[in-house]
Specification:
307 residues; alpha/beta; Multidrug-efflux Transporter Regulator, Chain: A, Domain 2; Methyltransferase, Methionine Synthase (B12-binding Domains), Chain A, domain 1; Rossmann fold; two-stranded antiparallel sheet; 11 helices; binds cobalamin; MerR-type_HTH_dom; DNA-binding transcription factor activity; Meth_synthase_dom; DNA binding; MerR family transcriptional regulator
Length: 307
C-alpha cells in the first residue's frame, strides 16, 4: 500500500504483518516474536492500530531469515540482521563444527523453497555442493526436500510452483557444478538419456556432474528421447555405456533396450530409476538403484579402476 508520510514526502510502500509473513514464508506469530524478542519489528510510523513494515524493515527480516537458513540460532541471526543490514554479504560459519549438516541444510532448503526465496535456494545448494559434493548434496539435502514438496502436492494439489522452482534451481546448480572436460578419461562417451516420453531428467544431471568430477565424459540427451533418436545417437557416437532413466513405470518399457543397435565395440547398458523396478530387463542390461553405486559402476566400466 502507498501511504502519505507526515512530511508529505514521496511515500514508501509498506506492508502489514500478514503480507510480510506470506512473503517470507513464516507465520505472522513468528514475526511478532522476532519483534518482541529481538527488536526486529517495524521501525516507522503506525497507521491506526496496525504497524506496517517498510522496505528497510522487510530487508532486515530477510537477512534474519537467510542467516537462519544457514544454520544460525535465532539470537545470532537477529544480531546479524540488526548489525549487518547495510552489508551485502552474509558471513559464512567460521568454525568447522558450525558447518550445518545435511539435515540442517535440507530444512533450510525446504524453508527457502516454500518461501520461493530463489537466492537463498541457490546459495544453499552451492554451499551443500561445496561442503560435501554433488552426491551427498543430492541424497541428503535435495532428495528429502523434493520428496516432501511432492508429498504436499500429492496430498493437497498445492506447491507445484515450489516443486518447479526447486527443480530449476537444482538443475542450474548441478550444471554449474559440472566441470567442462577437455580430456575425459574415457575415450568413448557415456550416453545419458531419459526413456521415451519420460520427462524426469533431473537425476541424470546429478549423475553427469558426479561423473564429470571424476573426469568421466558423458553425452547428455536429456528428457523424453524417442527410441529412434537414441538408436541414431548410438550409431553416431559408439558410446562405451548407455544410461536410460525411467522415473515412472509407464515409461519403463524394456523394449527400448532391444532397439539399441549393435556396434562394433561393446556398449554396456544400464537401467536407472524406479520406473524399471517392476519389469524384467534384458540380460545384457544392468539395473542401478543408487546414485553413488551408479557413479562407481559406470566409472569402473568405462575407465577401469578408480584413479
Ligand atoms: C521434479 C519432478 C517433476 C519435474 C521433472 C523435471 C525434471 N527435469 O526432472 C516435472 C515438473 C517435469 C514433473 C512432471 C511430472 N511428474 Co513429477 N516429480 C518430480 C519430483 C518432485 C522429483 C523427481 C526426481 O528427480 N526424482 C528423483 C529422486 C528425488 O527420487 P527417487 O527416484 O524416488 O529416488 C530414489 C531412486 O531413484 C534413487 N536415485 C535417486 N537419484 C538417483 C540417481 C541415479 C543415477 C540412480 C541410479 C538412482 C537414483 O534413490 C532414491 C531412493 O531409492 C517427484 C517426486 C519424487 N520424490 O521423486 C515427482 C513425481 C515423480 N512426479 C509425479 C508425477 C505424477 C508427474 C506428472 C505425471 C505430473 C503431471 N500431471 O504432469 C509429470 C510426468 C511428466 C513425464 N512425462 O514424465 C509423481 C509420480 C507418481 C507415480 N509414481 O506415478 C511424483 C512421485 C510426485 C508425487 N508424489 O506424486 N515432475
Amino acid at each position: 500500500m502507498l501511504g502519505i508520510t507526515l512530511q508529505g514526502e514521496v511515500p514508501e510502500p509498506s506492508l502489514p504483518v500478514a503480507a510480510v509473513a506470506r512473503r517470507l514464508g513464516v507465520a505472522p506469530a513468528t514475526l511478532r516474536t522476532w519483534d518482541r524478542r529481538y527488536g526486529l519489528g517495524p521501525r516507522g510510523h503506525t497507521t491506526g492500530r496496525h504497524r506496517r513494515y517498510s522496505p528497510d524493515d522487510v530487508a532486515r527480516l530477510e537477512l534474519m531469515q537467510r542467516a537462519l537458513l544457514r544454520g544460525a540460532s535465532p539470537a545470532e541471526a537477529a544480531e546479524y540482521a540488526l548489525k549487518a543490514h547495510a552489508e551485502p554479504e552474509i558471513p559464512k560459519p567460521k568454525a568447522v563444527e558450525e558447518v550445518p549438516d545435511g539435515s540442517t541444510l535440507a530444512k533450510g532448503l525446504g524453508r527457502a523453497a516454500l518461501a520461493m526465496d530463489t537466492p537463498s535456494v541457490q546459495q544453499l545448494l552451492i554451499e551443500a555442493i561445496e561442503a560435501d559434493g554433488v552426491v551427498a548434496c543430492w541424497d541428503r539435502v535435495v532428495r528429502p526436500v523434493l520428496t516432501a514438496v511432492a508429498g504436499r502436492w500429492a496430498h493437497s494439489g498445492a506447491c507445484v510452483e515450489v516443486e518447479h522452482l526447486l527443480n530449476e534451481c537444482v538443475l542450474a546448480a548441478m550444471i554449474a557444478a559440472t566441470p567442462l572436460l577437455t580430456r575425459a578419461r574415457n575415450p568413448r562417451p557415456v550416453l545419458l538419456s531419459c526413456a521415451p516420453e519420460e520427462r524426469h531428467s533431473l537425476p541424470l544431471y546429478v549423475l553427469r556432474a558426479a561423473l564429470a568430477r571424476r573426469e568421466v565424459g558423458t553425452q547428455m540427451l536429456g528428457a523424453a528421447l524417442p527410441a529412434d533418436a537414441l538408436a541414431a545417437a548410438v550409431r553416431r557416437t559408439a558410446p562405451a555405456a548407455i544410461v536410460l532413466w525411467a522415473q515412472l513405470p509407464r515409461y519403463g518399457d524394456p523394449a527400448v533396450f532391444q532397439r539399441v543397435p549393435r556396434t562394433r565395440q561393446k556398449t554396456r547398458m544400464f537401467g536407472c530409476g524406479p520406473g524399471w523396478a517392476a519389469v524384467q530387463l534384458p540380460d545384457q542390461v544392468q539395473r542401478l538403484d543408487a546414485l553413488a553405486e551408479a557413479v562407481d559402476q559406470i566409472e569402473a566400466v568405462v575407465v577401469g579402476v578408480r584413479k
